[in-house]
Amino acid sequence: MSVKMRLTRLGDKKSPFYRVVVVDSRVARDGAFVEQIGTYDPLKNPAEVKIDKEKAAKWIATGVQPTDTVRAILVKEGVIKPTVRKQTAKKQPAKDKE
């Protein structure tokens, strides 16, 4: 079973509000979750984030993979350290020799 830490959407149309949850990766976006560890409100200025840092750290230690958005939130909150990702170089088209 692959477990992920991701956002689940709540709120009305055009007014999103998210929960940060731990969930089986095969479950739908707004489906059943294992545990809720926080909330994220992008409409407030600045965006309001409430994360239970102890729960998040515990799940990260057990091998849960956060999505890119949740990883960025956790880095901003100081739960995990930022990692440098290796970017793949774009292939240059071959030049025709005349």
Describe the structure concisely for a colleague.
This protein has 98 residues and is α+β, with helices and mostly antiparallel strands. The protein is 19% helix and 30% strand.
The averaged pLDDT comes out at: 87
> What structural class should be given to the helix and strand makeup?
alpha+beta
Strand element count = 5
**CATH architecture designation:** 2-Layer Sandwich
When the domains are counted, the total is 1
Adjacency order of strands in the biggest sheet: 4-3-2-1-5
Element-level helix/strand string: EEEEHEH
Number of helices: 2
CATH class category name:
Alpha Beta
Alpha carbon gap, first and last residue: 56 Å
**Which band does the percent of strand residues land in?**
25-35%
What fold name stands as the CATH topology? S16 Ribosomal Protein, Chain: A
User: What is the C-alpha radius of gyration, as a whole number of Å?
Assistant: 18 Å
3D architecture notes:
The chain is α+β, with helices and mostly antiparallel strands and 98 residues long. It has a single domain (3-77), classed as S16 Ribosomal Protein, Chain: A (2-Layer Sandwich). It is built from two helices and five strands. It has helices at residues 53-61, 68-77; strands spanning 3-10, 17-24, 35-41, 48-51, 65-66. The radius of gyration is 18 Å and the shape is extended. The relative contact order is 0.20. The mean pLDDT is 87.
